Amino acid sequence: MPSNATVDSARPPRENTVDENLVGRYLLYFFLLVFIVSPMVDLVTRWFVSPFPSLTHLLRVGTSAWVTGLPAAEDSWGLMRAALDWFWQHPGGRMYHQLFFVEGNKFQDPPSSLLPLYILSLFGIHPGNAALNRFDFLVILLNVLASGAFAFTLALRSPGCASRRWPIAAAAACGTLLFFPLLGALTIGQVQSWISALFAFAALAWLLRRKGLSGLLIGLICLIKPQFMLFFVWGLLRREWRFVAGWSAVALAGLAASLSVFGVQNHLDYLSVLHALSRTGEAYRPNQSINGVLNALYRTGDPNVWEARGFPSFNPFVYAGTVASSAALIAAALLIPLFSRQRLGLLDFAGAALTFTLASPVAWEHDYSILPTAYIATMFALLIRKATPMRTLGFATLAISYLTTAHWLSGYWMLAGILALLTLIHALNFGARDNALGASNQNQTQGCP
Q: Is 313 part of a structural domain of the chain?
């Protein structure tokens, strides 16, 4: 008869067991949220809240993007072409000084963001809005596939989910496709679609422990979205050297190419653009950031009117509040997870991306199209935890957050949902080790949130 010690060693630890029925119940709620509740919210917002696209309209927009190319949608393309055309006409000229500060043109992306169009123009290729929006549509489909693969991989690695991996992947892909900020970027012709797809693949690469590739993809994002340069500091603090190496290789090569094409002065002028934006931000309500709320509170501009060539009036309280909140958010994302009692991983990565977006003085609703992977990662982080009232509260918070960000409910409901998600991510990142199912089993948790 074996000894008690032998029997005990043969048994899996109690903390690693999982109630598959309970996991199945929560996954059923997830399917209902994506396929029933979310479309109903779409219809309600379409009829009673705002004329923004409902579920059916979003799908129709996707189809028309491929057929007609949405030729009038040029939120990014028009500004980028104007900047590049001006530069071609004034070689070596100060495009930000002229366009942004003199003419009031709101081209706010770094010079490196023009490199793709610049390279195409060298070959005589000048894509119009229709071509760029068709490409955007394909990029969004790639984003959807990446989200599905992301959820599929997490399901394989999470207790009680492997047998349900295909329906989980399908639901995650559909939830991404119907996410308002993502298709909202398509309807206006936004380069943000590229950023969101790159981030989805970067998160997938991180999950698969291809951290060098993940850093490379984040480096590409930095050539368009400078806020993500904070990922370099994030990687250094966590000693993720492969990630830092991948980031550095692409970001430095892109910066060198941009400097050689557009010159040092335009890059220095771009720093002045960032400083000007930090002083005022935007008062228009789709700016779902702390700065947007402060501008609304102090009435520096009309939140219901888009100023194509103007900015809110400077207010010292808005400026101070923006700087203080941004510093606090960034410090929390960079430092607080380092004191966690559990191994840092995917949630830390997703939380950093969300924070660097939110901390910007201008964070339009489409800028949050990076969120589907964060929602998927957070859902699995909750699934592998013990069944407690706090976990139930976490699921409720996650569902409400998704509904307020996946649909345009007017006001600052989206910002409220984003802050709720970020708070939940911080709570999970800082949770005790013994609250995570299988946290002590390295093979089981490899790559999990």
A: yes
